[in-house]
What we know:
By secondary structure, the chain is of the alpha+beta class. It contains 24 helices and 29 strands. The strands form 9 sheets. It has a 6-stranded mixed sheet with strand order 2-1-5-20-21-23, covered by helices on one side. Strands 6, 7, 8, 9, 12 and 13 form a 6-stranded antiparallel sheet that branches. A 5-stranded antiparallel sheet has the order 15-14-27-26-25, with helices on both faces. Strand 12 and strand 13 (about 420-425) form a beta hairpin. Helix 15 crosses helix 17 and helix 15 crosses helix 18. The longest helix is centred in the first third of the chain and has 33 residues, at about 1-35. It is elongated, with a radius of gyration of 37 Å.
Amino acid sequence: MTRILKALLRWVLILGFSGLLLIALAAGVAYWLVAPRLPSVAVLKDYHMQVPLQVLTADGKLIATFGETRRIPVSIDQVPDMVKHAVLSAEDADFYTHPGVDWRGVMRAGFHVVASGGNKTQGGSTITQQVARNFFLSPQKLYSRKLMEMFIALRMENEFSKDQILELYLNKMFLGHRSYGIAAAAEYYYGKKLDQLTIAQCAAIASTFQLPSAVNPLTNVPRLTARRNWVLGQMREHKYINDAQYTEAINTPENAAPHEQPIQVDAPYLAEMARLQALDRLGNDALTEGYVVKTTLISTRQLAAVAAVRDGLAIYDHRHGWRGPEAHEELSADAGESDYNNILSSYSDVAGLVPGVVTHATTSEAEVFLLDHQTIKLGLDAMSWARPYISDSHVGAEPKAVDTVLKVGDVIRVIRDDKGNWQLTQIPKAQAALVSLSPEDGAIQSLVGGFNFSRSKFNRVVMAARQPGSSFKPFLYSAAFERGFTTASIINDAPLALPDPSQPNGLWTPSNDDDKFAGPMRLREALLESKNLVSVRLLDAIGVRYAREYITRFGFPLDALPNNLSMALGTASVSPLSMARGYAVFANGGYLITPYFVSEIDDRDGKAVYVANPARACNNCQARLLQNTPPAPPPASMLTNGVSASASSSAPAVAASVATAGETVLPADAHGGEAAPVLAPHVIDIRNDYLITSMMKDVITNPLGTGYAAKVLNRPDLAGKTGSTNDHRDAWFVGFNGDLSTAVWVGFDDFGSLGKGEFGAKAALPIWIDYVGEVMKGLPQNSLAMPPGITTLQINNQSGLPTETGDPGAMSEIFKVEDIDRLHNMAQQQQQQNQDQQQANDIF
């Protein structure tokens, strides 16, 4: 019996050893067959995870992220032990002890395949194998793929430490809802950093690795909770948590909710411009390689711009009455919260305007159910503005009862006022744009392309082609000053009729906005009162051809400027950005800068790959003083209005090119070394600049000025000009000091009328005042100093000519020094003519 047992044991050993040899031989042959196809795992040392593009303000606040994936790479030492323990408990408890392949797990998986008749279920893969599969192989369930996965895993274990492999795993794996890696999952599902997660949340994220699309904290929560509780049990079994922690965690309800990466500054229009320029410079890698675009935007100024635009549009909109609810739904008598939620499910918050459905209305108040499930009450004082809209220039009577404005079933918008009280409101139909840039180098510091990006992605700052109206006149006056006109030149503000075959009567008869005429007046008066007929006569005097060529010095292309006298009334096609750029020439002493908004682009390691070196006015820098070139037209390449010439004339506006995003460009790249300053071209005489600026200051400080409302800011350094167009289709205010040039436009995208009386001073100027008043708080005054070659002279306020001391009509005016002798000669000639006329009168 003993001999039989010994024989059997010997055969078992022989067979076992033979089996091992066969397995080893098979493994060797398999390795020999697949080795040529195995990738080099060394590439993982320099592997870059896909990381979205980030766009930041100049002060480091997040504007936007762009990319198909959510990923926040973390190093292994940034991962809390509790997160590691949860993942290891869920996926590979023996990770730190096996050689990369869990042979027992492989045997179990193999036995299951045999026992189930070839059913290939997932299982048996270690963390190392999962890393190998996700980096190098497809997810197909093939024996050949599994074999390659095991060999790659063994190679990885030889090349990398366990911590390095785990770091790759924790950053690479998909965890549902476009989230890749544990840090992105923690932020998206719970709005937390890794070190802020509870034990239950750690286990929930670890539970997501297995079936991330089907089972995650937001999808199939019951199944996720069951998986989470199993992971918690594994964590207790491996002594990672104690019984008390286990009990507390397992009784914690799952509370995940979507948490998009918090946007700190509302600037979606500029974010899209930054995305386009990043793609243009970096290609498709821009959205996946973790680049960070640092813009010139200043967060506090951007917030002020957004608030000013939204408040200004709301005030304009309320002024033109209540257009009725967004929608009306018939509610049954027994309608409840579920019915209200169904109605509001297709609505969302728009620029702080909260949707709600009216559930009850009487003469004195209405009850409104809001999107966040609360019910509020609105009294008559919350809708006192809601006169019924009749037309763009007429509204009905002030409401006397709530139920004349609101009915049960109305879907409306409400907003909290400054005191926290709910008020009835509506989404404005009009649009607005605001852009503010540095006159020194063109850095855009705030930009609002419309009321709300989600409702309209059309960026009116760079894409709109609108008529600037009277805000264009300073460019014309500047041209006239180079042709011998002065601030005191007399032009007749009187009716004018000129041949025009396109008119029914064959005549063009321009008029002033108020249809009144002031007669002969000085140019300073004409600009501050915005006299159209003076501008037409002035343009006629200097010549359209000369004026067009001169005005290109402010950055406008020649083909955007009408080749007729209507240009005097601001009929050019321009964008708000091109107007802010043009006025920046007056603000900086006569230099044409180019707007830009990308100051730096960094790679994922924080190393700069692009640093802007924009052309600067640099009025007092050594390079400028050494250059000392006379004013001249800028290079043709700098002339742009940000409008594509290929656009359809029937469209409300036209699109800018991807590469330039309007008239903005990426400035010269200065990264990687010292760069000499780039000087902006000198385009107008600083004395001309000083004279025009002084006149635009009067627009604000003189009670007769169209911009007089801005005097409330109590800043003598501010200058600007209003603008309005025919039928009140466009309203403008463009203004500046030495620190900022800011343009505001208000209008309808379909070129509809803003309504009777909606001039630039009424519709656009209040937005400009709100913005500038906020961003200029506490800043010292900054204005162009009187340059050499400017002098002061006493003139008669009627004739505009030098006068004698004691003249009751005497006033002080500024001139170029070379104009003084000519003015004195003109005064003498005028005096001689008066004397001759007096003698003639005496004879008769």
